[in-house]
């Protein structure tokens, strides 16, 4: 860990939190195998008929895909660097009366982690925290040459929310997330606002999108997309070609984002949420961290990200007349959402 980011001097856990793994429930394990290994280029391990994992690096699990009905992301696994910080997070949750459970030995083994605990998260996505990831000496067998993980974690998660300030408050309360910036995007005359939150040197580990003034969420899945970062531009472009060649759905072709400057494309996973494969986002180094000020960008992309089929923007546009009263309230964790709305 970088000394500048070392937590605990002020009680903050910022910098000691890293997105470690994604847990998915799906009935489409055969499709996931082909998608993840043959198209995206990750290492796949089939554990049994109902369980598979993808690796990106020397860790035994970055994606856990278990057979089940949700067809969605069910939990996000966050690595916490040390036991003291881990205890601090547990105390924050427990002190606010939120139920927190220790994972079983089997659950920890499946996720390839030690000291697994879980508690409720926004939109019903479980928040799982762990201290140590199990690495494996088994060599990587994958089409990609590598993925960028390490201090920056495995990537980021983007979520559409009808309660964006509550969600932002949650990650602030639990992980001391910091606001990197905003993007405003015009969607058929309505303003979509995206808040980008970081918990380490990755520009954002969580992005939260909503339509201003209209509480609608047209996305079936709890997570709109997961992002992973290719080691090289060639890797990213080759995976784009394989996704296309193998007939998986593309959502946005290659383009570059305004805020973190990441080059990326978006395709649709067998479970329906999207996977963004990116390359070379800016890193918020200690020097940048020291002077970082959030700003607001107009539009998601500098260039590209041409839509292929229906995208989140189309879905928002279609739903602009939807009334919040026809939908059930979004799941929030109010005890943990009281952070500042900065
Ligand atoms: Fe993204």
UniProtKB/TrEMBL annotation:
Record has Transcription as a keyword: no
InterPro entries attached to this UniProt entry: Glyas_Bleomycin-R_OHBP_Dase (IPR029068), Glyas_Fos-R_dOase_dom (IPR004360), VOC_core (IPR037523)
Gene3D superfamilies assigned to the protein according to its UniProt record, in alphabetical order: 2,3-Dihydroxybiphenyl 1,2-Dioxygenase, domain 1
Domain of life: Bacteria
CDD domains attached to this UniProt entry: BphC1-RGP6_N_like (cd07252)
Keywords for this protein: Dioxygenase, Oxidoreductase
VOC domain location: 18-132, 153-280
Gene Ontology terms, MF aspect: dioxygenase activity
Name of the protein in its database record: 2,3-dihydroxybiphenyl 1,2-dioxygenase
Organism, as annotated: Nocardia bhagyanarayanae
